[in-house]
Amino acid sequence: MKIIDIHTHVGDTLFGRPLLPYEPYEPYTEIPGWTTPYEQSEFDISKIEKMMTPELLKYYEGMLAMGERGLRILEAIQNHERNNAATVGNLLRAMKKNGVDYSVLMPIEPYRLTEANIEVCKKHKNILTFASVHPKDPEKIEKLRRYMKLGCRGLKIHPVIQGVHPSDPSVLELMEEYQKYNLPVLFHTGESTYYVTQSEERRAYARLQNYEEVVSSFPKINFIFGHMGQMERETALELGEKFKNVCVDTTLQPVEGVRDAIKRLGPDRVLYASDYPFSVQEVHIRIINKVAGDDNRLKEKLFYKNAERLIGKVG
Ligand SMILES: [Zn+2]
After folding, report:
1. 263-275: per-residue pLDDT in tens?
2. What is the pLDDT averaged over residues 255-262?
3. Ligand 1 centre and the CA of 64: distance in Å?
């Protein structure tokens, strides 16, 4: 069955530096212990403890002794390690190993530039990309037009990394222009920490209530809520029930979360994705297979048909 991973990254999306010329985590998905206990438990928090080695437990306990702050730092460090593994070579290897036919890249300007991703797509026919512009970039409209002309299949906005409220006037202005393309916006949703020094304010941009204004103001644009709101899945799905232009991707959600999304939004608005390298493709494929069982029509929707309805035919 065709598989499209609608949410992946290559390059340094956090700092915009070139990644090291060698590939430190090669072949990254095969290193035992590289996946976190959270991934090994398939994002089921009640099972995390079973996945812990004594060394890991000790490490985590040390960080947890710092309270909430320790958890945030741990999250930032893990994101940095993953970010460093985001080479094109690693992504291609992961795709081959997991039977993923197409990956869709998400640039995040001003760090990972759209044009760098477009160059990757020229070399690899199984890689597509969305566009990204910084909503507060004075040249955002010109840049957006240029990128869309070059074949981008959607637009990515990351409120935390880009440091912008999802319903900021600059975002609404960008949507005014973007709606004519009839392609989706993939929003990062849910609070997360990428930098050790990241402010509370920046983290809070990704709270789900902040998306309501933009989603309701542009009913013709399909919005994909990346990570389904993470810990705020309930609010993400409530917004999905209220607004038919909301879809969700399955990254960082357990079996139960994906089931819940299908039950509440229907089978057409849920999309398989991994957020590679911030998570791994195999875990998310396993989760989809568990949810769909032998329902092949549902599987087709989750793995590629829903994605193709939004971004057009692939391959
Ligand atoms: Zn992402």
Report:
1. 999 999 999 999 9
2. 98
3. 26
Secondary structure, 3-state, 66-80:
CCHHHHHHHHHHHHH
51 contact partners, CB below 8 Å, separation of at least 6: 37, 40, 41
How many Å apart are CA 289 and CA 294, to the nearest integer?
Answer: 8
How many whole angstroms from 77 Cα to the centroid of ligand 1? 16
Collect all residues with Cβ–Cβ distance below 8 Å to 315 and sequence separation of at least 6. Answer: 2, 101, 102
Q: How far is the CA of 238 from the centre of ligand 1 (A)?
A: 22
Confidence of residue 49 (pLDDT cuts 50, 70, 90): confident
Separation of CA 154 and ligand 1 centre (Å) = 13
Question: Between β-strands 246-249 and 223-226, what pairing exists: parallel, antiparallel or unpaired?
Answer: parallel
Reduced to 3 states (helix: H, G, I; strand: E, B; else coil), residue 259 is helix
Q: Which domain holds residue 214?
A: 4-311
Residue (of 312, 155, 140, 130) closest to 223 by Cα position: 155
* Ligand 1 centroid, distance to 289 Cα (angstroms): 22
Q: CATH number for the domain including 101?
A: 3.20.20.140
The half-sphere exposure of 35 on its side-chain side, counting CA atoms within 13 A, is: 21
Residue 225 vs residues 87, 195, 196, 206, 213: alpha-carbon distances, Å: 25, 22, 25, 11, 14
DSSP state at residue 303: I
pTM exceeds cut of 0.85: yes
| Total tally of structural domains belonging to the chain | 1
Amino acid at 8: T
Model pLDDT for residues 50-59, shown as the tens digit of each residue: 777 787 788 7
